Structure formats: C-alpha cells, structure tokens
Amino acid sequence: MSGKLTSFLRGLPVSGRIGLALVVFWLVVALVGPWLAPYSVGAFVDQDVFSGISSQFWLGSDYLGRDVLSRVLWGSRYTVFLALGAAMIAVCIGTSFALLAAIRGGWTDEVISRAMDTFISIPSKIFALVLVAAFGSSLSLLLVIAAATYVPGNFRIARALAMNLVALDFVQVARARGEGSVHIALREVLPNMIHPLLADTGLRFVFVVLLLSGLSFLGLGVQPPHADLGSLVRENISGITEGALAIIVPALAIATLTVGANLLIDALKPGGKA
C-alpha cells in the first residue's frame, strides 16, 4: 500500500503535489477543525470588531467580535462536506442514467437525454433560488439542490464515455455470452470509465463549492449562527475597506480549496494534459 502511494506521489507533477496538499489540508481541517476551534462557533469573545492578529485571536475578530479562526474552522466543514457529498451524489445519479441510456439505447436513451437537456438549460442559480424561496434554506435542501444541479453535466460526459465503450468488441462479446445489462454496465463498461469519472467528480466538487458559496453570499446558504466559507465572506463584507482578516481569510480559503482541487484534477488526467 505504501509502495503504491509513493509511486502515485512520484508520478504527480509539482502542480499536482501542490493541489493534493491543499485538498488534503482542507479535508483535514473539515474533519478535525471544530475540535481545534478555540471558541464556539457563535461566541462573542472580543469587544472590538475587525480586530487584527493577536495572541488571543490568531486571525482577528469579525464584525460582531467573534473569533475568525473558530468561524473558519467550523465553516470549512459545511463547505467541504456539502460540496463533496453533492458532487458524489450527482456523479452517481448521472453515471447511472448514462449507463442505462448507453446500454438500452433506443427510446430509453432518447427520453433520458432529452430530459437531461431540458434540465441543464435551467440556470443553476435560478433553480437554486426558486427552491430555496419555496422550501426555505436547510442543509438537506442545499445538498439536494447542489446535487441535482450538476447531474445533467455528469450525465453528458458519462454517456459519451459509455457510448464509445458499448461499441467496442469486448462488450459485444459479453452480449454474445448472454450477459445481462447489469453485468455489462458494472463489470464491462463502468471500470473503464473510472479515471475520467474521477476527474469529473473533482470538477463537480469545485462547481458545487462555488455554487454554495454564491448562495451563501446571497444569504440563502447555511444559516446563522452556523456558516460556511461563503457566508463568512458575505457577513464581513463591511470590513473590505479596512482589509479585515475576517473577509480575507475565508475568501482565501475558498480560493485555495478550488485551485488545489483543479491542480489535482489536471494532474490526474491521463498524460497530464488538460
């Protein structure tokens, strides 16, 4: 196991290693951050607002005198895990429909493809705003919105991959042996789609991070007293003229997370090409 990991790391270019380090860093922060936070997420601990770095507040305080470090450590959990969960759900659903469409073909492919084309034509922000306005903002709804928004995009990529594979000889041989659709999908087609799908999952993750951050910036994401990284930027927007760390730090967190994921995705592509 350690040999495979070492070989994998050696095979990554410098940009890929940087991306991997950034992604792993934020995953670790999301996992253990709340236990490392010096204060609770909504505690008012500073009489001053937008204070600078000090021994008591390593990243200063926000617009209400709350510890920025604690808020970022808590907020990263919502951003990372909501985005990761939504991306994985979107890829699983989109790939399942793609395999069904590619293997069955005919009217099944036509109906699913046209439905996905219709759904993908709806702007993601408008779709999210309508659902949040109708049902209110909650973590489960945000997860559903983010996942549903990116199912069609994954379906298109997965269907293109599956269609190419279904036409190959080894799939035709499996059909001639009398193998069922489930066997062909899971044992013949899907294993040959794994690497492109992993790259697409990374892209969906980045898209979901930006979507959730955008919703939170509009006040429609994770609700107070909890917050994700996008919420932290929005609520401290008044400190931008002062260059307050309360707005700079979460913005940098979103940037490093998305840039790191993109660098890692590019490094994982076959041949290292974009």
Automatic annotation (TrEMBL):
GO cellular component: plasma membrane
Keyword Transmembrane appears in the UniProt entry: yes
GO terms, biological process: transmembrane transport
Positions of the ABC transmembrane type-1 domain: 76-265
Bilayer topology: Multi-pass membrane protein
Subcellular localization, as worded in the UniProt entry: Cell membrane
Major subcellular location class: membrane
Keywords: Cell membrane, Membrane, Transmembrane, Transmembrane helix, Transport
Stored InterPro entries: BP-dependent_transpt_permease (IPR050366), MetI-like (IPR000515), MetI-like_sf (IPR035906)
Membrane-spanning residues: 20-37, 78-105, 126-151, 197-223, 243-265
Family label: Belongs to the binding-protein-dependent transport system permease family.
Protein name per the record: Peptide/nickel transport system permease protein
Organism: Novosphingobium pentaromativorans US6-1
